[in-house]
Amino acid sequence: MSYRPGQRVRVEAREHQGHHRTPAYLKGRTGTVERVHAAFRNPETRAYGSDGLPAQPLYLVAFAQRDVWPDYGGHADDRLFVDVFEHWLQEAQ
Amino acid sequence: MSDHDHDHDHAPIADGDEPPAAARVRALEALLVEKGVISHEDVREGIDWLVSRTPADGARVVARAWLDPDYRERLLADGRAAARELGIDPGPAPVLVAVENTERVHHMVVCTLCSCYPRGLLGPPPDWYKSLPYRSRAVSDPRGVLAEFGTTLDDDVELRVLDSTADIRYLVIPRRPEGTDDLTEDELAALVTRDAMIGVVAPAAPAAVGA
């Protein structure tokens, strides 16, 4: 587990061919680790018949809606919580 | 005889009113059975399990949490264990996280990538939950979506949208309605609708039940 609750993390903006569970709307966005779930087998390799090992830590990451959607029409405090696997995260400055 | 114009004949892939997706699923199932990956019995058992679950299971969990603060703590700490305590099979998803709505925070759940849903506690998801408009707008315009469900949040409420993209399933514990102090656990459970546990509406008002 490389990240801890409260830490700022950025979702990598890279492309990925094939199955993956990182929504496109989050790529390149920065949020805060809310919760460390556990490590789970990697869906990106499981989808193609692999055992999905090594398991990847999964985090619940909170994003300010206004950081994700610049013209977000709701309230300033509204947030989006998304489960993101560790290999899609990098430490944010 | 097919009615399209490639160069071989075959029986119609879709019979009558069968949607193309159903034909594709039948073909996939036949292939997987032929290759020995699954059996027809596995598929039948999976469907039987899924349709045996209903939102009444989740409602029992919520009603107990409203009545019993210790149970509420256990539910927030470990949703699967709390479901099992009430004899409910929480299903195959490895982690069930319960999130609690309060005066200041409102949660709603979506799966933008497909239709991840706490089926063990709520049964099959409604069609709108799987629809592209809900899946896209629940993250980009959640207050607009809530308004279409007739739900307006107070100005000082923080809206938290949970996008369940992976192995975790989320269950919303809605706020207990006013005027329910005298209700039994079963009467409380009757107020807890499926949509309230997805977080798009508030529970039913007590007068609306059994009226």
Provide tags for this entry.
heterodimer; A: 93 residues; mainly beta; SH3 type barrels; five-stranded antiparallel sheet; 2 helices; 5 strands; globular; B: 211 residues; alpha/beta; Nitrile Hydratase, Chain A; two-stranded parallel ribbon; two-stranded parallel sheet; 4 strands; 11% strand
The CATH class of chain A is identified as Mainly Beta
Helix content of chain B: 40-55%
Low-confidence stretches of chain B: none
Q: Give the strand line-up of the largest sheet of chain B.
A: 1-4
Question: What is the terminal separation of chain A in angstroms?
Answer: 19 Å
Note poorly predicted spans of chain A. none
SSE sequence of chain B, one letter per element:
HHHHHEEHHHHEEHH
Our count of domains of chain A comes out at 1
**What string gives the helices and strands of chain A in order?**
EEHEHEE
Q: Give the domain tally of chain B.
A: 2
Number of helices of chain B: 11
Form type of chain A:
globular
Helix content of chain A: under 10%
DSSP strand count of chain A: 5
Give the biggest sheet of chain A: 5 strands, antiparallel
The residue-averaged pLDDT of chain A reads 95
Average pLDDT taken over every residue of chain B? 91
Shape of chain B: globular
Task: Provide structural commentary.
With 93 residues, chain A is mostly beta strands. Chain A has one domain: SH3 type barrels. Helices cover 9% and strands 37% of the residues of chain A. Chain A has helices at residues 43-46, 65-68; strands at 8-11, 30-40, 56-64, 79-85, 89-91. Chain A has a 5-stranded antiparallel β-sheet with strand order 4-3-2-1-5. Chain B folds into 2 domains: 20-50, no CATH class; 54-206, Nitrile Hydratase, Chain A (Alpha-Beta Complex). Chain B has 11 helices and 4 strands. In chain B, the strands form 2 sheets. A two-stranded parallel ribbon of chain B has the order 1-4. A two-stranded parallel ribbon of chain B has the order 2-3. The model of chain B has no long low-confidence stretch (mean pLDDT 91). The chains are: A mainly beta (93), B alpha/beta (211). At the A-B interface, strand 2, strand 3 and strand 4 of A face helix 9 and strand 3 of B. Strand 4 of chain A pairs parallel with strand 3 of chain B.
